[in-house]
Design goal:
Layout lengths: L1 E9 L6 E4 L1 H7 L4 E8 L4 E7 L2 H14 L15 H9 L3 E7 L2 E2 L5 E7 L7 E9 L1
Antiparallel strand pairs: 1-8, 2-7, 3-5, 3-8, 4-7, 5-6
Length: 134
């Protein structure tokens, strides 16, 4: 069994931004078969798997903005003024665990891996990969 670990950084340009990181993750895979954990080291971001279709990605932003609305006052805003970003992150996930086959992510036909910025723009967002396999 082999264990490999890598990380890479992303700069974001908007307050809310969805970035397809599938090809970057595939570039860094150096085991033939196993499992990969993809983890964002930030509490106002997320890692998700879904379809890379522009309407769907816009719908995700719309849904999150309606679930965590500006019409409410949040206690965390007294500290950092970014409670909405943290709350949206609670609804998503900071990581995904996915299969690797033939040295690539073994995703479904329409699936991609996304980094979602919820409190940008930010520089140097870190994504950590941990691979276990052969």
């Amino acid at each position: 069994m082999t264990v490999k670990s890598y990380s890479f950084k992303i700069d974001t340009n908007k307050n809310f931004e969805i970035i397809d990181i599938t090809s970057k993750v595939n570039e860094l895979i150096d085991i033939d078969e196993g499992i990969i954990s993809i983890f964002s080291r930030h509490s106002t971001s997320a890692i998700v798997v879904n379809e890379n279709e522009s309407g769907l990605l816009s719908d995700l932003e719309f849904m999150l903005n309606n679930l965590v609305s500006d019409k409410f006052s949040y206690q965390h805003d007294r500290i950092d003024d970014n409670a909405k970003s943290h709350l949206k992150s609670f609804l998503l996930s900071s990581s995904e665990c996915l299969p690797i086959k033939n040295s690539r992510l073994d995703l479904g036909t329409w699936q991609s891996v996304f980094f979602i910025e919820l409190d940008g723009p930010r520089r140097q967002r870190t994504i950590t990969l941990m691979m276990v396999g052969e």
